[in-house]
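Service request form, structural biology core

Requester: graduate student, group of Dr. S.
Request type: structure prediction, single chain
Budget code: on file
Notes: please return the result as structure tokens.

Sequence provided:
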Amino acid sequence: MLFDSHTHCDYSTDSSMNISEAIRAARKANVGMIVTEHWDYDYPTNPYAFLFDVDDYFKQFNVYRSDSVLLGIEVGMQKHTVSKDEALIKAHPFDCVIASMHCVNGRDLYEPNSYKGITKAEAVQEFLEDSIANVRLYRDFDIFGHIDYICRYMPYEDQELYYEEFPTLWDELFKLLIDGGKVLEINTRRLDSLKAIETLQILYQRYQQLGGRYISLGSDAHYKEHVGRRMAVAKKMADDVSLVPVYFQDRKMKIMEE
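Core staff response, request fulfilled:
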């Protein structure tokens, strides 16, 4: 089956579904799922908002664990928290670790003030440069999450990402991921937009041209209605650029089958 490798349940502050609801939704959508609760040390707007009791997480959720319900984490990368993050990852039996950019140089990408006084080009360049800096530091993760996260929140007329505007930076980021054996994610949140699909597809194609072979599919669901959303669209995007959809169990890569 296809796997939704990016979902948020009881232990994510911003989630509106519990694990039982998520499992029922995944079964209805005929997909496997990985719970990837938020973990962001020293979050700029609230240092404790995206932390949780990881031991309790495993204690409470292990009863649900199976070949189709796996337990992971989404770590928000920041250069000054890498040692704490990797110590946490090493200390727990996660199936999958997503590393994501939610902040840039100490600023929350969700907040409008983070873009005050800078152009879109400056914002995207900083996003890519800080992504590269973090990927150089972080070693212990499986998937690099939502490359278009900044598109959700940057307050510019055109919110898409274009490879041709920063080809050197995109190539550097993709090569670092490929050389490090990391997998890129197709995040399905924005795949209701044809423009988003078109611009992102160029980036995934370039990732493949540089030697990327694998891709994960993730809804980033915070609501039960979103579990498994647009998986077919993401799968087609992967097929169109010859990327193989995978998921992780016990930190080992597995090929998805429909």
